[in-house]
Amino acid sequence: MQYPLKNIITTVLCIACSSLLFAQKLQQDPKLVKGELKNGFKYYLYPADSKSQQTALQLFVNAGSLQENEDQRGLAHFVEHMAFNGSKNFPKNEVITFLESLGVKFGADLNAHTSYDETIYKITIDTKDEQNLNKAISIVADWAFHLSFDSLEIEKERGIVIEEWRTKQGASSRMSDQYLPLIFNNSRYAERKPIGTLDVLHHFRRPTIVNFYTTWYRPQLMGIGIVTNQDLKKTEKLIKEVFGKAKNPKHAPKREAYYLPAHADTLYSILTDKEATTIDFSYVTKIPADKGVRTMEEFESSLKRSFVNNLVKKRFERLSQLQNDFKEGSMSLSDLLLHSGISSGGTTLYEDNIKDGIYKYLLENERIRRYGFTNSEIEDFRTQFVAQIKRGLESRDETVNATGLLADMKNNFFTDATLMDRKYRQETALKVQAAIDSADLVQYLKQSLITGNTVIMLSGPERLKDQLPTKAQLQELFNTIRSTQIPVWKDQISVPDQLLKNTPVAGKITDSTFIKEVGLRKWVLSNGITVYLRPSSGRKDHIQLTGFRKGGIIALDTTDYVNAVYAKNIIGASGAGDFTRQALTKYLLGNSASATFVLSQNREGVAASANMKDIKTMFELLYLKWTQPRADKAVFDNIKKRSVEATQNRKYTPTAEYNKQISRKIGSDDTEASEIDADRLQKELQFDRILDVYHKRFGSARDFEFVIIGDFNPDSIKNDVETYLGGLPGTAIDHTQRIPNYSLKDDSDILMYAGEAEKATVNLFYQTTDLNYSVREIMENTLMEEVLKVKLRKNLREEQSGVYGVGVSTSATSFPTPLMRTRVTFTCEPARTDFLIGQVGVELDKIAKDPSYFKEELANIKVQLKQDYKKQYEKETFWSAELRNHLYYNFSNWDYFTKYDELLDNITGSDISNRIKSKVIGASRVKAILLPETNK
């Protein structure tokens, strides 16, 4: 065929222009200040939003466990621990103490992690005072260049790191120790797990860890990311002064890049473990990693990956509704390591359908590989994707996401990915997505899902060892799939035109009052509903609604207990009105409205939200789900089958009987009656009871209280409130509940032996029903809990080196009956169990007897709580949750919202000491210990 020269030239020019377009570099965010010092140290600075008084900092270290010598295995991670145990300007643990005095919370605001290729340190700190930023930068510099490695502190930390290793032991770690060498193909990755080896952790000497630190913590391998409210020019100048002086060591070894070696053959791992509870099939195919998005071509590729991963997720979500051959399935493309990507997928299988379940999963996997996705699937996702981007572009919210920005800085540091302005990123995505079609995604899949370099893994309980397919049988399944004719995916979904056929008959506002103290409008509706409305600018163009009422499962007959427990999930997955779940999802594509219902032990409730332009849809959706719930038989069968098997398998876990005995000890007098085993679930969960149970608690909305928070004027939504909330049925409803008894007559002990891992699990419960539930008691409980966390951390972790972490939680309620429970939990070496439990008692006694013992900690905690309260105060979620609690417990005043700092300051050390005496030491105690089987 002859082509006119003009057409040929035009075609060539179009190709050239297209190539130039996609070779075009992406624009860096103009607000980013980025630089590199003469010694190679890099820095990234970004302004926080105008309301922020905080700075978030991260130190990036381009070194991890891969850089360890054989005698240093685990020491990259150990160095990270030592950063909190002494440096040039902060001896011993003083860096933690100092930062806590500024409101920084250890764990939440101060943390670090070590991986194969990296070590990252993190601080979030209040910097209303510029000096706090200077101090934070000084701390980061100490981490980078001036750690002390005091011999005594090393010995203390040695025990803590070994306890961290101990916490990870169990069935999953035993199996991963066997399959990871196959995934890593016996490369350096297989020999350098970040936690290291017990032999090195027990026996390394100080010079060995110092050698790792001085070799790899050098300016040319480090950078800092900062998002701050302070002046960027001053901050940049300080960075240059503090970090510019550091020198790189002479003759330092090259920072090698490590890759996973390829293997043409497929490797298989078939494992069982006595404590495994599920049968899991998965595969991993090693592919090249994304090397950072810098050009339009790379952005397009990244967006195609996002399309593929989301479309696969939605396909398998749909399959979980249509079949019972396997449980949830997955398939995705991602980066596993700095230089290695993976195509991976898998499923959890039913015990009675292992081989066929694998076959059916592989069939769906292959269908995607061959054909990609239908135009309907792609357009549905595109609608959702575009709507989300447009909401972002139209939003008036200018909040700076410090966490996301620091992640982008980190990506630039390690992969040179361009840090893009949010608006530019969204506009680019909107432009690029328009050209992505089915053929593009099929081509992308073919390029990405390469053959070979694959590991197949199958794992399950030891008791089912003989039922698992062999390597030969798995190979046969793969061969069969490759030669099987598979039709293109088809899924016809009928979608009604509108949510509601008729507009509800509206109710009326019968009373309106304004609560000045908290800017709260209160409306009483004619159907017995009360609505509280509070405009808030915390999240622009958004509204959040919650509704609640006392009642719940304990207001139902005991014969329907099992049905009540599962009703919410079954109805929630079944759609509503004339809509199946999938039809409802399709109808709402591109719409931000959502509404979910809750049926818990003591209350029933609803939560809904939307952008302001979708507010009518939100109210219609809430009304539809409330008045026209559905229970789909296929959904019911699916949930029941999975739940029966999961409940049956739970008894094989080492902690099953232990947890059951704890529940019986600390639970109410009807705890045993509420236990659901597989036989009871099979017998009592009945499809024809699900909707009846739902209607008993949601058949009427009378006595519901709604809290609506958002960027709105109450008058603008008055009509919707009267129509869709006021139009709900308001007949009388019985709220009579069974009143449980939680009184414990005496202290009691549980001692059990189970599990192979050489670790002890300890749970200490202190329980009382003697309390006068009030805002002050809630605040005293919070302070008491935080004091216990700090003191037990200092004793059990830092002084005794006996635990990796200590969990402390305090909960209290006055409804349906008064109950307060404090829990202390940790894992440890079995031989040290009694000693460490004794140390908990020592700390309780010290706190109870001497308020001055925790004076410094209490002061620091108050600073932390005040800062956190201030951060949360403008958020929708704060007002929604706290107003709900205030109304639910009928607190007498609004002081929590108007005088928080004053209330906090009025609580003294003596108050905390007295609370420990009466509500912990003076409470009934349950001591529960789980030791390994070998300790019998």
From TrEMBL:
GO biological process: proteolysis
Domain of life according to the entry: Bacteria
Keyword vocabulary terms for this entry: Hydrolase, Metal-binding, Metalloprotease, Protease, Signal, Zinc
SUPFAM superfamilies: LuxS/MPP-like metallohydrolase
Keyword Electron transport belongs to the record: no
UniProt-listed Enzyme Commission number(s): 3.4.24.-
Keyword Signal: yes
One Gene Ontology molecular-function label: metal ion binding
Cofactor(s), names only, from the UniProt record: Zn(2+)
Pfam family, one: Peptidase_M16_C
PROSITE patterns linked: INSULINASE
Peptidase M16 N-terminal domain boundaries: 46-168
Leader sequence segment: 1-23
UniProt-listed InterPro entries: Metalloenz_LuxS/M16, Pept_M16_N, Pept_M16_Zn_BS, Peptidase_M16, Peptidase_M16_C
Coiled coil ranges: none
Domain Peptidase M16 C-terminal: 208-297, 688-851
Family to which this protein belongs: Belongs to the peptidase M16 family.
PANTHER family hit by this protein: NARDILYSIN, ZINC PROTEASE PQQL-LIKE
Listed name of the protein: Peptidase, M16 family
Taxonomic placement: Bacteria, Pseudomonadati, Bacteroidota, Sphingobacteriia, Sphingobacteriales
